[in-house]
Amino acid sequence: MLGDMAQTTETPARTPEDGPARTPRVHRAWFVAAVTFVTIIGAAAFASLPGLLIEPLHAELDWSRGTIGFAVSVNLALYGLTAPFAAALMDRFGIRRVVAVALSVIALGALLTVWMTAPWQLVLYWGILVGLGSGSMALAFAATVTNRWFVARRGLVTGVLTAAGASGQLIFLPLLSWLVEHHGWRPASVTVALSALAVVPFVWLLLRDHPADVGLAPYGGKYEAKPAPVTGAARRAVTVLFKAARTGPFWLLAGSFAICGASTNGLIRTHFVPAAHDHGMPITAAAGLLAVIGVFDVVGTVASGWFTDRFSARRLLAVYYALRGISLCFLPILLAPSVHPPMLFFIVFYGLDWVATVPPTMALCREHFGVDSAIVFGWVLASHQVGAAVVAFAGGLARDAFGTYDVVWYASGALCAAAALMALVISRPRPGAGLPAGA
């Protein structure tokens, strides 16, 4: 009797045409989205820390900034290179397992840094372990959850989950910078590890791989049976890469997005705090400015999506990169011991421009690569992180060599000018252009 009642209220009919027997008042998809949101916020803790570690590690362990920057560059590169395969892993093993393992690997890597005594350990723990773990929770996590659990409101959910990273940066940067300044870098690393571990129970208990697991249709859609685990997805990702690499637009998009990563994650997120500290600004104040960037990049992303629906994506990218390059050339004269209005203007502008490049870049991927655009964008995103990795390393080397970051700001400004030109010369797609389905 109880079993029959449970089946009546909890499980679906056996065929997709019948659908689930009962629709809850608040759809389970929103709880899954909430867990995903919290998980991404927790992930922002380890994304916020590298820029805060450079000065403390240099002072305590006498490691060069180039050495520390190399470990950060390995982290950023693996984050990007893992991303194209993350969705394939989730299709094969399930969202819950992949995310839980990724969080555990991140916690292990962050915790092991507490006992490190040699630079190679920083590369292994922070660069490789945290890089692989965070790469498994890249944009593919939010995209997979949205695609499986939502038919209606996909745009809204995607925007909210994308904004979670900025929200997490806002929450954790001031806390981690306070810990670093008052208690040292080790408690900050432990905080990152505990934040990752704290999310694991929520993921394991509340996250489900597919609506059919709990007898529901996706939000706004019809009930469908859970598909069998997908094999060969990773092979397809590589095949699509080789086909896309034969086209000019792919290299222009990948090159410009690599410069985007170089001038955001590789440059500002990694080196802004130590550069401001060189000019006498307290670490907590510099980290607070980065947190403000996290607030305004939410606004900038939403606005850029609205613009992309109405204006040429190529021209938008050119404008974004050109303005970013000009602002970087002014940064050396804005850095000072205290925060003043021109610096606040720079921070607000950079926040608005931070990920404004994503909507037009995705739109151009759709125009040129059709049904394979999501996979192509995954590889373009990988180039973004490789660009970030190169500048994270090169920026540290330049600071060691010149004693200042000025040359880094000017060189990055010139790169942004090159990215603006690359965006303008992307050709318009021919009718019927794009990679064949299932390439």
From TrEMBL:
Keywords: Membrane, Transmembrane, Transmembrane helix. It comes from Streptomyces cinereoruber. Residues 31-431 form the Major facilitator superfamily (MFS) profile domain. Residues 1-22 are annotated as: Disordered. One of its GO terms (molecular function) is transmembrane transporter activity. It is a multi-pass membrane protein. GO terms for cellular component: plasma membrane. The chain crosses the membrane at residues 29-54, 66-86, 98-118, 124-143, 155-176, 188-207, 250-268, 280-307, 376-395, 407-426. Residues 1-12 have a biased composition (Polar residues). This is MFS transporter. SUPFAM superfamilies: MFS general substrate transporter (SSF103473).
